[in-house]
Amino acid sequence: MTTRRHFIQYGIAAGAASLSPWNLIKLDDEKPKPASKPLKILFLGGTGFLGPHQVECAIKRGHTVTLYNRGKSHPGLFPTAERLIGDRSTNDYESIKKAIASGRKWDVVIDNSAYLPRQVAQAMAAVAGAVNHYIFISTISVFGEGLKPGSDESGPLAKTPDPTTEKVTGETYGALKALCEEAAEKGMPGKVANIRPTLIVGPGDDTDRFNYWPVRIDRGGPVLAPGDGLDPVQIIDVRDLAEWCIHVAENNICGVFNAAGPEKTLTMKAMLDGVCEGLGKKTEFVWADHEFLTKNKVSAWQDMPVWIPRQTPDAAQSQVSNARAVKAGLKFRSVPVTARETLAWCKTRTPDSRPARGPKPGLTPEREAEILKLLAPKKD
């Protein structure tokens, strides 16, 4: 079975080089109330998947936004925002240093784009003395072996034999992000929010993991579904995560947080039923147990996206406690809303809009038909 950890490398590529057609994404029309105290926010990144939602929210709340990046991804986004050009992969922070030398300061930095502890340490050195709050977007994958269902932020962290490695793979990704968290806290003790999202879904997601389900259900016909429907899953709508990040900035919240949704336990069946509700579809699900799928080489997470069988070592990563984040203001859209608006975005895409990053999640119609045929009742 392909595990979440093995498949995460394709998500890494998504975060590093998203090509989402942002001009086609219909963001929420609702205008939030202006923040009581407008902030100056420096985004490291801000043009991938999560970043644009954060920036959109920040601008709507009345904050002043500065984007630091290479200027290559979606250069037309947010024309009113200040842009500082640089490449953190080569420690090129000259544009930030010049701004600081001229008297510039920011209330908070939101770091979306660091994968290596070196990158975090270098960024903190670049903004030293010019910022009082640092928000680092980490990942739930920081948890390592021995994690138990229901674990809070103190669960065991992933480790790598070589902490100096800069090769980001499915095996090193979580451990390196854990070291990034450590570097952030070391650089600004007591002034850092390390946010660990679970699987981020919603409009703009080019990984196609959650997307598989609304697209498949919309196509119609019997749908192959994994397990017995009782396996827990955790997802978070990108807009919920983005809005909460801005809430964290506005309230100067620090600490470590599991950003996993929804608030209460969600099973695979409840998620798929929620997708059907959002799409207004009546769907026949054909459930296949873990043993059958393994025997027929249908993998968890890759062929059956979002699903982690509760019998497997990775299962606890879909069952972490989000109590601390909820107490700090994290709120969640419903699955039907996320599914409906994700499908609407998916329908704006062209066949060649998905970046190349390995096999597309989910089963092809032909492969699914083969498995469904094996599950069909035998005729006398």
CATH topology type: Rossmann fold
Rg over C-alpha atoms, rounded to the nearest angstrom: 21 Å
CATH class: Alpha Beta
The CATH architecture classification is 3-Layer(aba) Sandwich
Termini separation = 33 Å
Shape: globular
Contiguous low-pLDDT stretches (5 residues minimum) are 13-29
Strand content: 15-25%
**Total count of strands:** 12
Helix content: 25-40%
Q: Which structural class is indicated by helix and strand composition?
A: alpha/beta
Largest sheet: 7 strands, parallel
Order of helices and strands: HEHEEHEHEHEEHEEHEEHEHHHH
Q: What is the CATH superfamily? A: NAD(P)-binding Rossmann-like Domain
Describe this structure in words.
With 380 residues, this protein is of the alpha/beta class. The chain has a single domain (4-373), classed as Rossmann fold. Helices cover 33% and strands 15% of the residues. It is built from twelve helices and twelve strands. The protein has helices at residues 4-16, 50-60, 94-101, 117-127, 173-187, 212-219, 238-250, 268-279, 290-295, 323-327, 335-346, 365-375; strands spanning 40-44, 64-69, 82-85, 108-111, 134-137, 192-197, 199-201, 223-226, 232-237, 255-259, 261-267, 285-288. It has a seven-stranded parallel sheet, with helices on both faces. A three-stranded mixed sheet has the order 7-9-11. The protein has a two-stranded parallel sheet with strand order 8-12. α2 links the parallel β1 (40-44) and β2 (64-69). α2 (50-60) crosses α7 and α4 (117-127) packs parallel to α5 (173-187). The longest helix is centred in the middle third of the chain and has 15 residues, at 173-187. The chain is globular. It starts with a helix and ends in a 5-residue tail after the last helix.
